[in-house]
User: What shape does this take?
Amino acid sequence: MSTQPPAWRSAIGPSVLGIGALALLQALAAMARPPGGPSLQAALDALWQSAPYYPPWVVLCVVAFGVLAEGGSRLGDRRFVAGGFAVAFVTFFLPYVVYEVAVAEAQAGRPWTGALQVLRHARPLTFFADFVLFVGVYALLHGAALARGELAREREARRMAAEVLELRLQVERQRLQALQAQLEPHFLFNALNAVSGLVRTGASDEALAAINQLAGLLRYATTASRTEWVGLDEELAFVDDYLALQRLRYGERLRVTVRTSGDPTEIRCPPLVLQPLVENALRHDLDVHAGEGHLALAVDVDEDRAVVRVENALRAGRPPNPGLGLGLSSLSERLAMRFPGAASLDAGARGELFVAELTLPRSDDGR
Assistant: This one.
């Protein structure tokens, strides 16, 4: 939490400058008064003679502002304002009047003790200008304390809002990491399932090739798990390797068509967003029958977005392989967190096809 310097300390500089400017204005007024025209010497004399009168005002500004700034919400209470004014009147203004007369007596060459005699015979209006200045200074200090309090409250509100946003961001990151951690074992399960299928059929050469292929896939998955964004071209290369592994399992039964339009290197996306689409297509097709299956993968990139479409045939009367059921649901949640309202995943039956269509926005912020 950020801290502010004491209010009285922050008031020293502005108080000196403000009272100094007032003294300078008085000197300039004295400069223009001599009968012979403006005189710099008259200004310097007036500045020298008025110098003792201004330090008490600086002290008033510093002390009163420090006290008022500590008032907080009480600054809007009339009783607090009236009480503060009364205290300042008694502790500053009345002593200052005595001090002012004593200084004037001393500058006139008379004993300063004669100040009490002067005050005894003085009219109340004699010190009216001092009283007006006192009221104006106090009002200015009160307004400055109010403004300072309001700024402090705004800073605190912004700080608290930033902390809340940071907490929400941390929660979202943890949710995303949990989904990522959930997806990686899901991918590993399906990849190992492909290898184990080859082992069970006794295809040792194909199984060895699949293990080597799996090692490359795992390297990408491990690296991708430590980053937030990858290129769509990297995802397509990973899917191509994943399909190569699946071809070792399904052999000639798996037929794949890939069509790409536009430049996928211009699209950034979270890692492991395409593999669940392909895995889901296999689960709805080749895993539920012994015949051939055709998987169509199309990628269209334009100036605003990329659309990835994966299609496979639906087999009438054959339910899909239930699997773990995590791929598409996890992917939808990840997309909603990474691209709120900008990305979409639409999956379902369309006639005789099962279609999964993924839309990713183009980003210009360096992702």
